[in-house]
Amino acid sequence: MPKPAPAPEAPATYVGEIAGALDRIAYLAGRARQHDRLMALAGVPLDRAAAALLRQLAEGEPLRPGELAARMSVEASHVTRQVQHLRKAGLVTRVPDPDDRRARLIELTAAGRKAVDRIREASRRGMSMALQDWAPEDLERLATLFHRMVDDFVAHADDAVELPPPT
């Protein structure tokens, strides 16, 4: 049976522009100074790793530490350290896994949920300030396109990418 033809690639010029813009956003969002500013605005004194863990837990159901590590693409020992820190701060708790009583799930406490909400609100306010001069229809289009892009990234996350041999 013949191998299916590869899907056509998006025009390189646009892909390069988009990749460059995403790199700039990631750099700006990932700077320690930006994180510290966001945490100060939110009144939540957490390092980046702890804040990322809380945000991940806020996305859904309680998780086993190993599953949390996999979703965050970090080592399990990293999650264990962060969970210990966050438990001491009263932001997460361990609860029995209903499918396996020997296992424990990590769950946000009410204080943890409040901390995530404050971080998200501070982030939204900063973004709102940055986009205040945009027309509502431009914001609607940007939101639609961002969701579409993220959905497509997720859909193709495990696809093999072939590069031409180095020259």
TrEMBL record:
Source domain of life: Bacteria
Transmembrane regions listed in the UniProt entry: none
Keywords for the protein's UniProt record, in alphabetical order: DNA-binding
Alphabetized InterPro entries for the sequence: HTH_MarR-typ (IPR000835), MarR/SlyA-like (IPR039422), WH-like_DNA-bd_sf (IPR036388), WH_DNA-bd_sf (IPR036390)
Domain HTH marR-type: 15-151
Molecular function as annotated in GO: DNA binding
SUPFAM superfamilies: Winged helix' DNA-binding domain
PROSITE patterns xrefs: HTH_MARR_2 (PS50995)
Name under which the protein is recorded: DNA-binding MarR family transcriptional regulator
